[in-house]
Amino acid sequence: MFDRLIDLVVQFIDLFRFWCVVPDASRGVVLRLGRFHREIGPGFHLVWLFGIEDVWIDNIVATTTATEPQSLTTADGHGVVISAVITWEIEDIHAIMFKVEGREQVMIDCAYGEIAGLVQERNWDALRGARVPATLKARIAKRAKSYGIKVTSVAIRDLAQCRALRLVGAMQGGE
């Protein structure tokens, strides 16, 4: 009972707060009556009282995401296992706040799709070439840009040929 009274007092005091402080390496958006009004950077900012303006703040520091190994088939029929490490950062705070929920999962999904497309287009020898990470970076960056994300680097963490043959169809029909 007493904790609810404290919450009520804190909420009442919060109605009269007319400022916000955005930490360094963060950006924010100001919502006025629930709609996007403006973007704000680090520092001290004045906002309207009584909850008319609300501030959403997000960290824009570079993040590294590792993809799990994918088993794929190249254009010449070789089975490969590939995984990558992507370093990215938020470039457009408005887009990341309003177009994406779960931004790390969006990056992983973009990476999986582009890695699969690249592997299926190339043969094994071309896939081992030095230009593959740069091509992959350009493809992932193009896809992630619409979400307000800037890809700074992509590294192939693991690339190996599969030696195992999966006979899923044969096992299902054999019983």
Q: What fraction, in percent, of the residue positions are helical?
A: 25-40%
State mean pLDDT (0 to 100 scale): 88
Query: Helices and strands, in N-to-C order?
Result: HEEEEEEEEHHHHEH
Task: Show unreliable segments.
Answer: 167-172
Gyration radius, rounded: 24 Å
How many runs of DSSP E, i.e. beta strands? 9
Residues in β-strands, percent = 25-35%
In the residues, how many domains can be counted? 2
**In whole angstroms, how far apart are the ends?**
64 Å
Label the CATH architecture of the largest domain.
2-Layer Sandwich
CATH first level of the largest domain: which class?
Alpha Beta
Shape: elongated
Number of helices in the DSSP assignment: 6
The largest sheet is: 4 strands, antiparallel
Classified in CATH, the superfamily of the largest domain is Band 7 domain
Q: Could you say which structural class the secondary elements and strand pairing correspond to? A: alpha+beta
- Named CATH topology of the largest domain: Tetrahydropterin Synthase, Chain A
Descriptive overview:
35% of the residues lie in helices and 35% in strands. The chain is α+β, with helices and mostly antiparallel strands and 175 residues long. It has 2 domains: 2-59, no CATH class; 63-161, 2-Layer Sandwich (Tetrahydropterin Synthase, Chain A), CATH 3.30.479. Strands 6, 7, 8 and 9 form a 4-stranded antiparallel sheet that branches. Strands 3-2-5 form a 3-stranded antiparallel sheet, with helices on one face. Strands 1-4 form a two-stranded antiparallel sheet. Helix 3 crosses helix 5.
